[in-house]
Amino acid sequence: MKKIVLVPLDERPCNHVFPEQLTAISDFTLVKAPMHLLGNKKVPAKVEELWEWLYEEIQDADCAVLSIDMLLYGGIVPSRLHTMNETECRNHFNRISKLKELNPSLTVYTFHLIMRCPSYSSSDEEPDYYEDWGREIFRYGFIKHKQTLNLADDSEVEELTEIQQRLPKEYLDDYLNRRKKNTQVNQAAVDLVAQGAIDFHIIPQDDAAPYGLTVQDQQLVRSYVQEKEVLLKVFMYPGADEVANVLITRFINKENEYVPKVYPRYSSVHGPNVIPKYEDRPFGETLKYQIMAAGGILVDSEPESNIVLLINSPGEDMMEASQQNDQIRGYEVFRNITELAEYGDYVIKSLKKPCAVADIAFANGGDLQFIKLLKQKEILFELSGYAGWNTSSNTLGTVIPHSMLTSFYGRNEAHLTFLSLRFVEDAGYCGQIRRKVCDQYLPEMGHTYMKVDGQTGEVAVLVKRELEAFIQKELEYDNHRVLIDFCYMPWSRMFEVGLSLSYSESVAVRK
Question: Could you tell me which residues come within 8 angstroms of residue 101 by beta carbon, excluding any fewer than 6 positions away?
Fold first, then answer.
């Protein structure tokens, strides 16, 4: 049994638990960094102890999947807060070269984010000054970038002048200097790929826009990748929390000598061309990278495919899942989810072929109407994968690995458990329950979206109860049962939820 060692991006379930649950579908073993070494949101991980753990675990490992953000800064949020200088960053980073010295047969896959630049003012995951100046920092980079392309209009130039007069220089300098170090580390990673110390590297772009500081940093790194002639070994595309899933699946596919062929079927003819929220390019371009990164290829027809990927896409601009009761023409006219559900039913029941769903119609949650259709066709639990959480890239980097592993190993218990989790979390929590709890309960409970009463307080109890009602009403049919064993709020806020659940096939009626 081959061993994969994982150093995740952070301690949240999407980074620390999902990769383990997906690996369980296979016959590979995943050893992940223990929680006591990881951090807690803005509190960085115990980086020195983490390196010691890694050096020990890779001695007999076959593959290491490593978050550079974790190994350098202590996690995704600390990567936006650290005060290390360039020399300190490089000294930490160069330890990666030692891995193949300790184990020459080790396959090393790494990823390191292009640092995001949120368009809103909030210090929840950013430096303290971002609470007051976040939007101005974003607009500064956005307009500056457009200026270099001669695209900024007079009102934007006027806005930039006003921002430069008001924005404290020390805050802007701090922010830009950290971004510069981030870019230097990404270039150093490219060097290690060129030298052979890293076998494959992904540079995800977290929460991006078509213009701004993030895009400019990406352009610098892309030019460096081209200069070093490693385009086949370094991929750059939108994403973040899903990358470990992709890299683990890439290694499993490689070892199994399996190149999954994926055929995408859209709910809208405009689907491939929609630029999703928080991303910088048409969806169809990101899809190509996500499939390649996981070790597969995109094909043009169902007969030549191993997997049919149903893509529930917007017809025009993407809305938030919390707005899905207020749909507009792009959802009601410019797409056809009925046809997509019928086609999925045909693929599963007549063609007997693995069929998965990338539910990217909305940002930050699944499409409840489409879930209803899949349930009415009685194919919810016949899918080979489903995801519909956060960004479209988060969704793709979850459902593509899931369906690839299922297409090779079959529909086992681990698959059904993870499939159930995605329905409950992505459609249930993100698509409906999060907004319901925030609107109807949090104000009278004295809590806010960004701060609830700890991981396992009364809010977690309420969320569990609401999700159980959702499961019974929207998911269960025939003999399909889903039971939530545990529910918690990982960062003591409403954005994400942590769930442990089990799936069973039982004719027993719930009491």
Answer: none
